[in-house]
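Please, structure for the following, as tokens.
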Amino acid sequence: MRRIVEVQQQSGFKTVRGGSQGELSGTTFARADFVREGPAYEAVFVKACNALALTIVFAGPDQNTVERFVAATDLKLDPSVSGCGSQHK
């Protein structure tokens, strides 16, 4: 996540929320949110698993739009392939 923050800052984004956790479909990710002048808001989710690392970026003109994208996401991870266990019951 530290590397992502550095790259975003080099691209003109400012950190709005960093070092927090976010959830996608019951799976916990590290989350950081960024904003840039003009209509640009991004939420970045990162998860390191046994077999891979996932980075998911949601981008939109404002925070409300990005939050709707996050809420509408239905992520399904196959634990036998990814090494990421879902917290779904």
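The helical segments are 2-10, 63-72, 79-82. Strands lie at 14-24, 27-36, 40-48, 53-60.
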